[in-house]
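Q: What does the assembly look like in three dimensions?
Context provided by user:
Components: two
Sequences:
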Amino acid sequence: MTDKPSILIVGAGAIGSFYGAILKRAGCSVSTVLRSEYEAVKENGIRISSPLGDLSYRPDQVYRDGDSPQSPPDYLILCVKVLPGTDRAQLVRPWMGPNTRLVLIENGLDIERELAEAYPDNPLISCLAFIAASRTEPGVVEHKAYGKLVMGSYPEGISEDCRTLSDLFIEGGIKVDLTEAVVGERWRKCLWNTPFNPLSVIANGADTRTILDTEGGEALIRAMIREVMAVAEAEGYPMEESLIEQNIEGTRKMPPYKNSMALDYLNDRPIERDAVLGNVVALAERHGIAVPHLNTVLVTLKMRASLEGRA
Amino acid sequence: MTDKPSILIVGAGAIGSFYGAILKRAGCSVSTVLRSEYEAVKENGIRISSPLGDLSYRPDQVYRDGDSPQSPPDYLILCVKVLPGTDRAQLVRPWMGPNTRLVLIENGLDIERELAEAYPDNPLISCLAFIAASRTEPGVVEHKAYGKLVMGSYPEGISEDCRTLSDLFIEGGIKVDLTEAVVGERWRKCLWNTPFNPLSVIANGADTRTILDTEGGEALIRAMIREVMAVAEAEGYPMEESLIEQNIEGTRKMPPYKNSMALDYLNDRPIERDAVLGNVVALAERHGIAVPHLNTVLVTLKMRASLEGRA
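A: Here is the predicted structure of the complete assembly.
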């Protein structure tokens, strides 16, 4: 037996499976709640190849959406995609106890609010994952590189719960940056994601090189970053002007790269449009800030979605 | 024999074939210069079904790109698509005589300039076609509706040549509106085409209903029309504000409609990106007018093109 906290991963895709494995290595009990991959994981566990070694593990319990838990976990880590059709507050409800800390390892901006409102008495920890990993078949994940988490309490600060979880992740073998202002870190990450991800989708899966090297492409990206910065500042997170240059130069130094939203699009999977872009445009409207470049991309994506009969 | 002027149609797709038929009905000699459809038309002539009746005809001469003409025509009517890879001035060179009037029945803005510069001594007549017609197989055209031409001398005025040609078209059975300011008419048509056509392409072939009914869609269209109007005004063609409403309401009254650029895109044919959009953005830059919505759409289309290895 262990006195380490119990962990429940809700949504064990590539991200959830990986961070579950890290906490398993740290000695926690790790259970999962799955939908489509339930049978495969129940049968074979989760198999993960990684530069860190073989991270494969059998979850302590494998639950299916709709099951009743034996007891609520100490930490519930939510790793599902943030999609309009997914009611995340509802999704975690059966598993939340009065002392359960709710942890988000998810992309996007303004994605904490609905959970903070639904569970005002549970501590909420918000994380950004910097990782290259993909699910290759049910229950099988390829971890390619990185893995760092940026973590903080929502809406701000670093609680003791947060430090405990961070220590466990570090013990399991990854880096964690604790931050007093996790929302500001989300804005910082979205300086890149909000322009590049949706633009790559409406450009039919263009990689970073194509985006930047097309005539007018770099200027468009700069204009979009500037719009994100204006909204971030209005929200209380002013950013240094130099971040524009850093994002462009950093991207130019990488090999041509298709981001995860482009890959989702090319593989007919739903994209996190609102988490990454729609919420920024909504905040801009609330502040009366014009974001014409972002808005053009957003509305185009909505037109495509209605064409495909999606939300 | 006829004392009617001789006509040469360069680029006898749906548009060129149709207007050639009209002039044939008016008693002109009508020849064609063709590329891919040469064999079919040489063999079978041009077959056109139409609400006006059967407009099929055999061109007096069927030339192939690169042939030498017997004698230069009185009117050379250019109906090719306006694409970056097509040097239109070069294309018509073998057929231009000292007295040949050059007539454009082509879409877009600022598309006359390169021809006016190449043939400063030949009268240039610029036309906009309001027609629904499509080529169904080589040498076969289905004329569905409309057919009106708006016609004027370039850059302005209505020359005698213009009136002569207009009378012939009317004699052949279509309506012609002569205009002293054909460039202004192009701007007027582009109030619709410049927003709707390229937007339908980046929205993957969305029809007018989808574009207007998507959340934010109508507002986006309005913003794009406004940008086109600002450039038109800087170019000396101020437009009434009420045209925005008219364009929106007129579109809502039509059945859902896929424009020709959307159809070209969906059928893997090149699109007239620069004629309809790129030239407007270039003029905006020259005047220092911000057109962020138009520019986002333009750059996205360029990214797609470089992804596909096109210009």
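Follow-up: The radius of gyration of chain B is 19 Å.
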